[in-house]
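HUMAN: I'm a chemist; might I ask for a sequence paired with its structure tokens?

ASSISTANT:
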Amino acid sequence: MALPQILPSSSSFTHKPHLINPTNNFFLTPQSNPQYHFTPLPFLHRRRRRNNYTLRCSASSFPEKHHTGSSPNSDDVVELPLFPLPLVLFPGAILPLQIFEFRYRIMMHTLLQTDLRFGVIYSDSATGTADVGCVGEVVKHERLVDDRFFLICKGQERFRVSKVVRSKPYLVAEVTWLEDRPSANGEDDVEGLANEVENYMKDVIRLSNRLNGKAEKEATDLRRNLFPTPFSFFVGSTFEGAPREQQALLELEDTAVRLKREKETLRNTLNYLTAASAVKDVFPSSG
């Protein structure tokens, strides 16, 4: 399936869209505070060459509170236009886009007449198109004279594709809503897990800043009053250069399992950074 085409940014937007080239790697970077810029998963994209195509997510873009009753009923079946992209959108995350491919311009004209919501679904040449995606709601748009669109989208509900209704001029599918369910044994302390994950993120940020020659300032309040479920989505959105891992996290239907997986990933990252920091201390020139 051909991937949609997206172009560079417009200065008229606070969040600037960036070029996405499906053949290149790209990265998601948390922007909750400029001092917290870091590369959280160096072991996942071992020595991959960083390019300039960066999509930014922000902790502040996530809702302050999450209530389990706020999502549509999981039994509802609706039709949703789909936008395959080589990235994973999480609930609450901000996604800037610029669209110029004809079929997606048609889709935008339709959305502007309806509810401004479409499905963002991960797709690449190796694995094809995923079955689980996230609704992107257009919260700001600009239409240019040549009929291109600049968009700012925000992740909303997750969905699972039940059936493709049509494929031209763009994909439309019947989808059902996906929600996290209570843990199987009911014994997991999700609040405690979320706190552990936050602490691991703080340590990763601190060591990453040190390795990059930045001030080792203490990262505080990364959760920003988020409940465990939306916090787990925020954490997943920071996992750079690993869209398949992000997709796996998006598909999980258990907040505790998602947090445990993220905790393990961050712990491995911390071990990597600790070893790299020790090497740098012994051999300063190697950094």
Summary: The helical segments are 102-113, 190-211, 228-237, 243-251, 255-282.
